[in-house]
Amino acid sequence: MGTLYIVATPIGNLEDITFRAVRLLSEVDLIAAEDTRKTKILLDRYNINKPLTSYHKFNIRTKTSHIIGLLNEGKNIALVSDAGSPGISDPGFELIRESVNQGINVVPIPGPSAVITALSVSGLNTDKFIFLGFLPRKPGKQRKIFTGLINFDGTIIIYESPFRAVKTLKEILNIFGDRNVVVARELTKKFEEVVRGKISHVLGHFTAKDVRGEVTVLIEGKRSKQAAQSGEI
Prior knowledge:
Blueprint: E1 3-7, H1 19-27, E2 30-33, H2 36-45, E3 52-54, H3 60-72, E4 77-80, H4 93-101, E5 105-109, H5 114-120, E6 129-134, H6 139-147, E7 155-160, H7 165-176, E8 180-185, E9 193-198, H8 199-207, E10 215-219, H9 225-230
Parallel strand pairs: 1-4, 1-5, 2-3, 2-4, 6-7
Antiparallel strand pairs: 7-10, 8-9, 8-10
Helix pairs in contact: 3-4, 7-8
């Protein structure tokens, strides 16, 4: 029986990959990638020449069965997403779950993750946080989720499309009031930007410009009256 390696890849800068990840990608029999074209760019950078197969949200059912079959034949396979850690708001959960259910060895190869990268530089509470990934697009469902977290005292983290970032920030302001937030955009890339401050300030910043690239939004948790009056982020 083979091993399934869950390999984290750079979220932007191609230098942000571990020695172990490069070695494993060079050794496995097959690499299952969310987008083989994007993964090929990374592989070429490190002179890795291994077979690729696609594994994305549109072929999960058929490809999970196929990959499980190869693992049962003794093939070692690496799973990668377009960027970051597979399964974290990216394809991977179904394959990992089925591998675990069948007793296949699943090994993590840790590395970049946008949610942890953004949290580490946010200046917000890192001891307690909740990650929600991409929220439902329907305003009612989104509002219900936010409302349920009004009294949460840890940092709230979401991913958002650049096309909906301003709209979501307005919704956050309406529900949470003018709390501190951090918006991290294009992390580790050429145009990386981290904007911190009250929601009204951050909203004004992004309303005055086109929002581009992948966006991570961090919302300050509920604070005591004394902490809130201090105004510190």
